[in-house]
């Protein structure tokens, strides 16, 4: 490998371009990020960051990756292990072992992730195991409950970066502010809460954020490995496989590590608080219900209590979206269908948005049918309201009927 002259870009602390020079570096082929005045990056043939030297802090990180370009271990310049990481077959990180500051002392910390809604942490020096239940809304962590029942609420900005953490009584537990690309600008209070910039988890042992598919280094505003997905083949920035949200960290985020999402909001659209809380209850996934459904009820209940003068209806009151009235007889009842245990959230959402109903074909018939019943939806139940020409089937329980598309029972 020979010496090669390449362009070197120097960035100011806030990622402002301050100069350019052409140093000589042993580099073949050109690397995705060129060394600047503050740090020196080394990459492997696949574009994975394997070594990082921070000259200003006199720190060196040696990074090991597996065959799927995932970071498995990070060591310091002396070979001491700072962090080790394990993943399942789908790429979800299931375990982390790291050296972290706990109560002003560096301790070995083991964290297990059975799923994203629940976590276990073991601090070796204290010989203590703690657990936490996480609550999500639209993929963003909004609250957490520990094993002693203490709740923490995460308040975020326009790109879902956690700026405030509040307790049950609304008191501030933690306050944070960030530079545009995620470097911490202000931090006060308890810093042990996991979600931070873009509501992603910061690995304090490395300074990297874990973005599910890849790791992100806010210090250089780049991912540590190349994106496996081209984010827009007709967009020049889409081919930059290391940049973050195409250079727009103020108005976009990248929750998956693969694809930037714009967070620009139409300010003319007003969402009532009652509707927000209602959607929060509906859109918590089935796994969240299993692991932290009670937690979410407590969160929503407290929010309703604190803001009751603004919320005229129950938090868990479901939205009824009637379909087109196709009754041949206006006196026929309106039917409802509950979400079944086997129905996917995707199908339920499609039904709620369109008012249409899907079901299996009845035995010995070409008609598609679903079980339905009359009357309002039970409190807290999720379902679809629809209007049909169906009549109660002979022998069916009172108030229940079998709805058959295009057919009425005689």
Automatic annotation (TrEMBL):
Residues 314-361 are annotated as: Disordered. It comes from the Bacteria. Residues 153-228 form the Teneurin-like YD-shell domain. Residues 341-354 have a biased composition (Polar residues). Residues 317-340 have a biased composition (Basic and acidic residues). Keywords: Repeat. Gene3D superfamilies: RHS repeat-associated core. PANTHER family: PROTEIN RHSA-RELATED (PTHR32305:SF15), PTHR32305. This is RHS repeat-associated core domain protein. It comes from Leptospira weilii str. 2006001855.
């Amino acid at each position: 490998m020979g010496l090669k002259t390449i362009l070197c870009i120097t960035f100011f602390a806030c990622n402002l371009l301050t100069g350019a020079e052409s140093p000589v570096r042993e580099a073949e082929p050109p690397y995705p990020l060129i060394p600047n005045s503050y740090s020196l990056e080394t990459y492997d043939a696949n574009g994975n960051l394997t070594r990082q030297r921070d000259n200003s802090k006199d720190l060196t990180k040696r990074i090991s990756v597996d065959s799927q370009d995932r970071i498995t271990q990070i060591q310091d310049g002396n070979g001491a292990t700072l962090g080790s990481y394990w993943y399942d077959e789908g790429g979800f990180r299931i375990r982390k072992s790291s050296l972290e500051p706990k109560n002003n002392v560096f301790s070995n910390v083991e964290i297990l992730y059975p799923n994203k809604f629940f976590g276990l942490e073991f601090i070796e020096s204290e010989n203590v195991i703690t657990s936490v239940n996480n609550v999500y809304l639209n993929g963003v962590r909004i609250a957490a409950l520990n094993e002693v029942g203490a709740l923490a609420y995460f308040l975020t900005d326009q790109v879902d970066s956690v700026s405030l953490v509040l307790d049950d009584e609304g008191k501030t537990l933690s306050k944070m502010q960030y530079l545009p690309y995620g470097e911490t600008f202000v931090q006060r209070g308890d810093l042990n809460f996991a979600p931070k910039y873009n509501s992603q988890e910061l690995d304090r042992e490395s300074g990297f954020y874990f973005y599910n598919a890849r790791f992100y280094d806010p210090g250089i505003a780049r991912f540590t490995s190349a994106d496996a997905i081209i984010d827009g083949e007709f967009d020049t920035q889409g081919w930059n496989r290391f940049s973050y949200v195409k250079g727009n960290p103020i108005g976009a985020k990248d929750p998956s590590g693969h694809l930037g999402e714009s967070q620009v909001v139409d300010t003319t659209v007003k969402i009532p608080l009652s509707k927000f809380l209602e959607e929060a209850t509906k859109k918590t996934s089935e796994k969240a219900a299993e692991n932290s459904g009670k937690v979410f009820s407590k969160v929503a209940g407290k929010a309703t209590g604190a803001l009751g003068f603004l919320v005229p209806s129950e938090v868990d009151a479901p939205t009824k979206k009637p379909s087109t009235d196709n009754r041949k007889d206006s006196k026929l009842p309106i039917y409802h269908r509950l979400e079944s245990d086997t129905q996917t959230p995707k199908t339920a959402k499609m039904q709620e948005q369109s008012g249409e109903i899907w079901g299996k074909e009845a035995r010995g018939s070409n008609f598609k049918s679903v079980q339905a019943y009359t009357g309002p939806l039970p409190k807290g139940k999720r379902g679809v309201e629809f209007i049909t020409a169906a009549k109660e089937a002979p022998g069916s329980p009172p108030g229940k009927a079998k709805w058959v598309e295009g057919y009425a029972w005689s």
